[in-house]
């Protein structure tokens, strides 16, 4: 089930974040998104297995952060969250879903390519320790 994140979910979300990224977002970043209708989690069998944060800027839906707990990766959860984003974007009048991914993170780039995204370009110095690959998908 995909549902909005509540304050009581933050510890589980932060645990997923810390296990997923070498430079995880700090807690205050997640707190600042509470109440955002684009901050949702994937829950199954009373376990939070993943989350996504999207925001709409003009007619563009921007994927700010997404992660699936390492124990549940490659089970379709990330794809389900991307599909939710696309439906959310359509409902809110967005025509494109955009994101950035680390240039050296080839496996995640392949995930997005398999989900119908295209490469828009390279963003030098986007991350402190890496360039970003800007990707998009028309919705």
What is the CATH-assigned architecture? 3-Layer(aba) Sandwich
Compute the number of structural domains: 1
C-alpha Rg, in Å? 14 Å
What's the tally of helices? 4
Mean pLDDT: 96
Strand order of the largest sheet: 1-2-3-4-5-7-6
Report helical residue fraction: 25-40%
Largest sheet: 7 strands, mixed
CATH superfamily: Gcn5-related N-acetyltransferase (GNAT)
Net shape: globular
Separation, N- and C-terminal Cα atoms: 22 Å
CATH fold description: Aminopeptidase
Task: Identify low-pLDDT runs.
Answer: none
Q: What is the beta-strand fraction?
A: 35-45%
Global structural class: alpha+beta
- The tally of strands reads 7
Question: What sequence of helices (H) and strands (E) makes up the elements?
Answer: EHHEEEHEHEE
- Reading off the top of the CATH hierarchy, the class is best stated as Alpha Beta
